[in-house]
Amino acid sequence: MKIQVECYSEYEDIERPARFSLGERTVKVTEVADRWYSKEASYFRVSGDDGNLYILKGPLADGTWELVSFTHRDSRGTELEFEGKKHLQ
């Protein structure tokens, strides 16, 4: 899904998403939890000010961004941090 993204530039060539629009609603990025790269673009796993998690891909060659994944804050497994050890069952 194509989205509009406003970026914050930490350095000249390094941008990270600051906020993005989903239809009429704007979501402010409160945390970039992870970032990885592909040949086409960068991927960002971010937390929004609405408490949800998103994976954004961009900027693509044409300057656009895509919403790759959305996880609602009440879904299982959305914690970015945890206390104590987790054990596989």
Explained architecture:
- This protein is an all-beta fold.
- It has no helices and six strands.
- A six-stranded antiparallel beta barrel has the order 1-2-3-4-5-6.
- The model has no long low-confidence stretch (mean pLDDT 85).
What attributes characterize this protein structure?
89 residues, mainly beta, 6-stranded antiparallel beta barrel
Structural class: mainly beta
Counting structural domains, the number is 1
Written as H for each helix and E for each strand, in order along the chain, the element string is EEEEEE
Terminal residue distance: 36 Å
Question: Which residues sit in consecutive blocks of at least 5 with pLDDT less than 50?
Answer: none
Spatial strand arrangement across the major sheet: 1-2-3-4-5-6
Sketch the major β-sheet: 6 strands, antiparallel, barrel
Radius of gyration: 14 Å
Instruction: Output mean pLDDT.
Output: 85
Relative helix content? under 10%
Q: Approximately how much beta-strand content do the residues carry? A: over 45%
> Tally of extended strands?
6
Separate helix tally: 0
Form type: globular
